[in-house]
C-alpha cells in the first residue's frame, strides 16, 4: 500500500510543477505580448519583457531551457514561451509551451 501512496504523492507533485510552469510561461507570454502591442512596440521589446519576467519568476528553477519567440502583424502581437517543467519522475521532462496574443494599438494620426 505504501508504494501506491508514494506514487500518488509524486504524481500530484509532478502535476503541481507542470501547472506552475505553465502558469509562469503564460504570464510571461502575456507580459511580452502587451509590451510588444504598444503603439511603437517591436517584437524584440516583447521578447525582452517576457525573458525578464521569466528571470524574475525563478528562471531555470521554474522553467528550464526557456526560449521566447515573438511575431508582430499589422493587428496582433504574439509571444510564445517554451521550456521544460521541473520533474520528480526520473527520465521524464515535461515540455511546456504557452502563447499570448494581444491586439496592437493603432498609430494615432496627427490632426
Question: Overview of this structure, please?
Answer:
The model has no long low-confidence stretch (mean pLDDT 92). The chain contains two helices and three strands. Helix 1 (2-36) runs antiparallel to helix 2. It has one domain (2-103). 32% of the residues are buried. It has a three-stranded antiparallel beta sheet, with helices on one face. The protein is of the alpha+beta class and 111 residues long. Helices cover 44% and strands 26% of the residues.
In short:
This protein is of the alpha+beta class. Helix content is 44%, strand content 26%.
Task: Give a topology summary.
Blueprint: H1 2-36, H2 43-56, E1 63-72, E2 76-85, E3 95-103
Antiparallel strand pairs: 1-2, 2-3
Number of helices: 2
H and E order: HHEEE
What number of structural domains do the residues give? 1
> What is Rg?
18 Å
How far is it from the N-terminal to the C-terminal residue, by CA? 76 Å
Largest sheet: 3 strands, antiparallel
> What is the global morphology?
elongated
Mean pLDDT: 92
Q: Give the strand tally.
A: 3
Pick out the low-confidence regions: none
Question: Helicity range of the residues?
Answer: 40-55%
Strand content: 25-35%
Q: By helix and strand content, what is the structural category?
A: alpha+beta
**Biggest β-sheet: strands ordered side by side in the sheet:** 1-2-3
Oligomer: single chain
Key traits:
2 helices; elongated; 111 residues; 3-stranded antiparallel beta sheet; alpha+beta
Amino acid at each position: 500500500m505504501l508504494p501506491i501512496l508514494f506514487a500518488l504523492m509524486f504524481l500530484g507533485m509532478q502535476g503541481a510543477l507542470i501547472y506552475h510552469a505553465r502558469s509562469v510561461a503564460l504570464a510571461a507570454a502575456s507580459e511580452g505580448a502587451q509590451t510588444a502591442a504598444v503603439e511603437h512596440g517591436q517584437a524584440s521589446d516583447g521578447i525582452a519583457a517576457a525573458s525578464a519576467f521569466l528571470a524574475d519568476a525563478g528562471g531555470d528553477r521554474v522553467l528550464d531551457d526557456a526560449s521566447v519567440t515573438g511575431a508582430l502583424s499589422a493587428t496582433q502581437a504574439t509571444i510564445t514561451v517554451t521550456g521544460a517543467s521541473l520533474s520528480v519522475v526520473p527520465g521524464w521532462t515535461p515540455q511546456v509551451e504557452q502563447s499570448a496574443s494581444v491586439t496592437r494599438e493603432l498609430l494615432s494620426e496627427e490632426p
